[in-house]
């Protein structure tokens, strides 16, 4: 292919350089030449339904679609003349046939493509009509659909299919009576918020936002989503100190349901409690340990690290520490302190292996990129997990089920199956030669024929991704697993992404010198302790929630991105305590430029951080971490004898839109916290649907209603933690546990 070869094109009389393989529209946009569109959406494949993007090319008869036609070397292109204007004007007349004149009450008014282009092409009168039809508004849960306003651009369908992968929206063809249908209404997918975001008119809107505010009344405050660790771009849209909705740069970026609807968790009505503040300062002075949850910004993490150096307490953040140790072991193979993979490379992959994560629930943004690879490149997706997930069955081409606890053995089998031909160091080859494949296959329950099928499916392909998840980080053999998986990046060219636990776990793991065990009196930041600082408003001293702070977080794409204050906060902040203890910064963001450069951060002031996308979608948000060299020690240990998990097991896993006590607080994300298991699990535990039981994990006591999910299989039940308040952060050990329970009163 000639893709990437330099070409020269002439657009509207001016010469431009570009590369072969790009469409005329792409080249026009990268040179800031305006071509009107209605159905085009940069982040999906060209739709070609609106014809607004027509252009003329010298030597080609008729008008062509610039969104689909690839430019050729020497092409002479015209994007605007009288004929093109009249063609586009005629298209707009068709769009406006019987379109209800509801602009005064339509939620899209002020930001409506149809409204804007009706004025752009001077449609002052409509000289023809079509027979009107009865098209009632439909309530689909998180979003509502008004078919009378729909212009059938298909953007929502494409997003539902190509991006989020819920595949809920379809086109019902019927000429002028064509409409969009929701084939999965019973699911009430919050991911349909992404489909509503791209709607150019008022056909798809957030149900709870309808008729509450006009677009021009709302102030857009740029920020980053703090929930899953994706750090996705977002805007809080605010009026009178209230967040009305969350939006995003939908042309280029995505938001999951939690990011779009989980915004009302601010710690409101707080004033400065001087007595509680004095006690907090004293608690830090006496603390043997400070505990940090993942709901902590980079700057706050640095503040606590500096206080540790000054006061000498231990610093404990369980999930971040597990991830830190995993990545330290990973780096001992690759020689770099962070993984090399990116989300974009996942979306461009021809094959993706997911190992150690219920990815649809753990990190939706990563799942979206896997779905893109599946839809755009027909990528093979191998999903390796003890539990099948019905929500991603539409993209999984091979499900490999392994036994709980056997992840080290699975990692060893993967290396043996897929790296046999790689140019490996002698020590690694000796390790692989010594593997007892038959034993490992029997103990992990991963058949040799399954691995052969996986290896065969990757032959003659290139562009592989390996997605690694939170099941592995707190595994008893996590560091050995990390080394085995790092071999894929170092010696096989895999795009490896080690998805951090929810929140800002990656930032904490890079900034803080974390300890394994707590000792002495404790202070907790959004985690229960002897003295608790809480953004939920239930601790000993109030703290601001993430949507009430300026600061940065570190994303799964290894990007340091800014957050801005969406709502006011009247209480003390961590920086006030730090200043009382001898540090000196006027504001928390004074620490942004002090983030450790030796860990890949840059000495850039907060106010100097960029936060935008350019006209072709290149991301200019914050900056990318720089990979730093670390010492290499490519020594692998013998695989330990695998521990069996007989009987019933619970798996710590939240529903798709829930990540913490803060998403649990959000009124638009209503999820029931129940222990969810299969009929087989019910038989093994002698439980009935509706029984209530009690059990303990990592010192946290659970009182759960048991529900049977007929789509599930096996003897592993899903146990959420999002409803456990600050205590949820304590549940951070290996995610699978044997279930030892007692019955509670029903």
TrEMBL record:
This is Ferredoxin. The keyword Protein transport does not apply. Residues 5-83 form the 2Fe-2S ferredoxin-type domain. It holds the Pfam family NADH-G_4Fe-4S_3. One of its GO terms (molecular function) is 2 iron, 2 sulfur cluster binding. Residues 218-286 form the 4Fe-4S Mo/W bis-MGD-type domain. GO terms for cellular component: membrane. Its cofactor is [4Fe-4S] cluster. Keywords: 2Fe-2S, 4Fe-4S, Iron, Iron-sulfur, Metal-binding, Quinone. It comes from Sulfurovum lithotrophicum. One of its GO terms (biological process) is ATP synthesis coupled electron transport. Residues 83-122 form the 4Fe-4S His(Cys)3-ligated-type domain.
């Amino acid at each position: 292919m000639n893709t990437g070869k330099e070409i020269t094109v002439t657009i509207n009389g001016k010469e431009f350089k570009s590369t072969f393989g790009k469409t005329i529209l792409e080249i026009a946009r990268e040179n800031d030449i305006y071509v009107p569109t209605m159905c085009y959406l940069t982040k999906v494949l060209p739709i070609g339904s609106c014809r607004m993007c027509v252009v003329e090319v010298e030597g080609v008869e008729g008008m062509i679609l610039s969104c689909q036609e690839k430019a050729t070397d020497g092409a002479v292109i015209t994007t605007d003349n009288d004929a093109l204007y009249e063609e586009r004007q005629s298209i707009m007349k068709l769009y406006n046939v019987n379109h209800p004149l509801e602009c005064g009450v339509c939620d899209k008014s002020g930001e409506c493509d149809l409204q804007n282009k009706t004025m752009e092409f001077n449609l002052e009168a409509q000289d023809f009509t079509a027979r009107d039809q009865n098209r009632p508004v439909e309530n689909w849960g998180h979003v509502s659909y008004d078919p009378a306003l729909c212009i059938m651009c298909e953007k929502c369908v494409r997003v539902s299919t190509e991006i989020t992968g819920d595949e809920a929206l379809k086109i019902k063809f019927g000429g002028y009576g064509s409409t969009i249908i929701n084939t999965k209404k019973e699911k009430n997918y919050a991911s349909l918020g992404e489909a509503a975001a791209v709607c150019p008119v008022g056909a798809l809107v957030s149900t709870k936002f309808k008729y509450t505010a006009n677009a021009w009344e709302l102030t857009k405050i740029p920020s980053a989503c703090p929930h899953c660790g994706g750090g996705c771009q977002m805007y809080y849209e605010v009026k009178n100190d209230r967040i009305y909705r969350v939006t995003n740069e939908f042309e280029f970026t995505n938001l999951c349901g939690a990011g779009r609807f989980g915004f009302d968790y601010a710690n409101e009505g707080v004033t400065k409690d001087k007595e509680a503040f004095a006690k907090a300062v004293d608690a830090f002075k006496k603390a043997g340990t400070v505990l940090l949850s993942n709901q902590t910004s980079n700057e706050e993490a640095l503040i606590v690290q500096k206080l540790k150096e000054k006061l000498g307490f231990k610093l404990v953040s369980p999930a971040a520490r597990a991830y830190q140790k995993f990545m330290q072991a990973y780096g001992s193979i690759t020689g770099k302190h962070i993984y090399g993979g990116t989300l974009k490379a996942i979306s461009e992959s021809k094959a993706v292996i997911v190992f150690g994560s219920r990815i649809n629930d753990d990190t939706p943004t990563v799942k979206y990129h896997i779905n893109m690879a599946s839809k755009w490149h027909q990528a093979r997706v191998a999903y390796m997990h003890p539990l099948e997930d019905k929500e991603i069955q539409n993209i999984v081409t091979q499900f490999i089920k392994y036994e709980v606890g056997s992840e080290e053995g699975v990692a060893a089998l993967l290396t043996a199956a897929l790296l046999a031909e790689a140019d490996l160091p002698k020590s690694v080859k000796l390790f692989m030669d010594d593997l007892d494949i038959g034993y490992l296959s029997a103990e992990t329950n991963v058949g040799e024929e399954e691995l052969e099928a996986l290896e065969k499916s990757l032959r003659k392909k290139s562009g592989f991704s390996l997605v690694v998840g939170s099941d592995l980080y707190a595994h008893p053999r996590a560091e050995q697993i990390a080394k085995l998986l790092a071999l894929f990046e170092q010696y096989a060219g895999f795009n490896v992404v080690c998805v951090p636990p929810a929140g800002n776990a990656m930032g904490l793991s890079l900034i803080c010198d974390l300890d394994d065990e707590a000792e002495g009196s404790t202070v907790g930041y959004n985690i229960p302790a002897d003295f608790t600082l809480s953004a939920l408003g239930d601790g000993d001293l109030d703290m601001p929630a993430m949507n009430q702070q300026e600061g940065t977080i570190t994303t799964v794409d290894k990007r340091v991105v800014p957050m801005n204050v969406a709502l006011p906060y009247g209480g003390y902040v961590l920086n006030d305590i730090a200043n009382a203890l001898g540090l000196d910064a006027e504001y928390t963001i004074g620490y942004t430029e002090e983030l450790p450069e030796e860990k890949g951060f840059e000495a850039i002031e907060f106010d100097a951080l960029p936060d935008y996308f350019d006209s072709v979608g290149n991301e200019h948000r914050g900056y990318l971490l720089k990979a730093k060299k670390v010492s290499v020690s490519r020594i692998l240990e013998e695989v330990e004898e695998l521990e069996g998990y007989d009987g019933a097991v619970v798996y710590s896993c939240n529903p798709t839109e829930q990540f913490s006590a803060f998403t649990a607080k959000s009124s638009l994300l209503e999820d029931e916290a129940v222990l969810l298991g299969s009929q087989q699990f019910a038989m093994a535990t002698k439980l009935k649907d509706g029984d209530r039981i009690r059990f303990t994990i990592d010192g946290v006591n659970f009182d759960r209603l048991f529900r049977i999910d007929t789509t599930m299989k096996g003897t592993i039940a899903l146990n959420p933690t999002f409803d456990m308040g600050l205590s949820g952060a304590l549940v951070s050990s290996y995610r699978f546990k044997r279930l030892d329970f007692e019955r509670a009163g029903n």
